Amino acid sequence: MKRLVAAAVITVAYAWWATSVAPFTAICYVLIAVPSVLAVVLYAAVGAFSRDRTDIARYYQARAGDSSFSSITPWLLVLCCVLALESVGLALGGRSPGVPTLSTAVDHLLVEHWERGILFVLWVWVGASPLWRLWRQRQKNQR
Fold first, then answer.
1. pLDDT, position 46
2. Distance (Å) of CA 19 to CA 23, 72, 104, 105, 130
3. CA-CA distance, 52 to 63, in Å (whole number)?
4. Alpha carbons 42 and 47: distance in angstroms, whole number
5. What ranges do the domains of the chain cover?
6. Residue 75 pLDDT more than 90?
7. Helix H segments across the chain?
8. pLDDT at 50 over 70
9. The predicted structure's pLDDT at residue 14
10. Cβ atoms 82, 102 nearer than 8 A
């Protein structure tokens, strides 16, 4: 539990620092790349890239349950609608008040520093959550 709290504090502090840097600068790109490279290194340390990935395959198959193409069709339709709306918005110049793009909506969330910090923490959390589950599964299998 202490490790989880320490990781959360470090992530929030890192996100606060990373989102205070001017966008599109070299340091900004480095600060974004660090969590990505760290995730790849940790995936390799957990063994996610090893040839013997049967336990990882079993883990994800068990989590998928009895999902099928017909059970994910509603989500695919939503994704297609989002892509179509984004395409129409971009075709109208990207700044149409009648058909906003996803990037236009996200731009409103990036105005304040604290909003950028929250989005950065969420981005790290989304990227780290599968890694966390794999690590816990490995720990459980080693017992």
1. 76
2. 8, 35, 19, 18, 24
3. 19
4. 8
5. 2-142
6. yes
7. 2-18, 26-46, 54-64, 69-91, 102-109, 113-142
8. no
9. 93
10. yes
